[in-house]
Specification:
7-stranded antiparallel beta sheet, 8-stranded antiparallel beta sheet, alpha+beta, 15 strands
């Protein structure tokens, strides 16, 4: 019996035995995710030989500060970066280069303690500002009161239109240690990963194309911390407690393996099948990823716009595209 089969059987055994009490329901939430973490480590080890890791570089090599430079700090070696938010302002940075397709990953440690109203954003966008025609791929980490879980909101924009939100819980406390948050983007799909576990798949498809799929504009990668207490926590009911400021998020180990944009059109965009992130294996979930993804969908999804019939009496067209194909 393979290692993955043993893990799968153990997860299914834990899930099937978890319906008898609230205590075992909590075990259902925690124990299977411990298995997922182990799987993620195995996946990482297996891929390490085929994915060329970028060498460690300083912040200045990859990024520029967008605003409030005095709210930005680095470690002595330049490889860990800190953004802070107070009542006056937040802070943000962006890559110096644009990319069209690839693998983009960063390790984040989120604001600890009472972070209600605070949003840490980690995203890709085709414009420097929130322009009316932008394409965008979002991770947004929604702060909460002490003891309450963080939520991750993901979103997709094309030509300035969004409203493709999903919200997930996490299987760990993202304030205690660094965890990786990654985006795989090619012409076939966009996948949002947490510690290499796929939590969301946004598909394109061949002949009957998803006309909401952002695949034409190169994007920068950004991160920022800002106050959003008008909506971020319980729909704006929980306000930011400025007595707890400054709120600090931390970043390290930025990695990109993608097609760097060069005007008027980089050769790598038209020959992307030479790169692992746009080969057949990157167009579909593997069997182990499907298992992980299914568990996430059953246990951690808080909101899915594709199931919100009050908001969308006629669901957006891409909701009919299967993430499993």
């Amino acid at each position: 019996m393979t290692l993955s089969s043993q893990i799968h059987q153990r997860r299914e055994r834990e899930i099937s035995s978890s319906s008898s009490s609230k205590t075992t329901k909590m075990e259902k939430r925690v124990s299977p995710m411990a298995s997922l973490l182990f799987i993620a480590l195995v996946i990482s080890a297996l891929h390490s030989s085929s994915q060329a890791a970028d060498s460690q570089t300083s912040f200045e090599d990859n990024f520029s500060i967008m605003w409030s430079e005095d709210h930005f700090k680095t470690s002595e070696d330049g490889n860990t970066w800190f953004l802070s938010l107070d009542k006056e302002t937040g802070c943000g940075f962006q890559t110096k280069q644009r990319y069209r397709f690839g693998w983009f990953s960063m390790k984040l440690k989120l604001v600890g303690g009472d972070s209600a109203g605070v949003v840490t954003a980690y995203y890709m966008c085709s414009e420097n500002g929130a322009g009316p025609e932008r394409d965008e791929l979002d991770f947004e980490f929604l702060g909460n009161r002490t003891g309450q879980p963080y939520l991750i909101q993901t979103n997709v924009y094309k030509n300035g239109a969004g409203n493709r939100e999903m919200r997930h819980m996490l299987w760990f406390d993202p304030t205690e240690d660094y965890h990786s948050y990654s985006i795989l983007w090619n012409n076939h799909r966009i996948v949002f990963f947490v510690d290499r576990v796929p939590i969301r798949v946004f598909k394109n498809n061949g002949d009957d194309k998803n006309d909401f799929f952002p695949n034409e504009k190169p994007m920068y990668l950004f991160s920022s911390i800002w106050n959003a207490d008008d909506w971020a926590t319980r729909g704006g009911l929980e306000k930011t407690d400025w007595k707890k400021a400054p709120f600090v998020s931390a970043y390290k180990d930025f990695s990109v393996e993608g097609c760097q944009w060069e005007d008027p059109y980089p050769a790598c965009v038209s020959t992307t099948t030479k790169n692992w992130w746009d080969q057949y294996q990157a167009w579909h979930l593997s069997d182990s990823q499907k298992m992980d993804y299914a568990w996430v969908q059953r246990n951690l999804v808080i909101y899915d716009y594709c199931k919100d019939y009050d908001r969308f009496p006629k669901l957006p067209g891409e909701c009919s595209l299967s993430p499993w194909d």
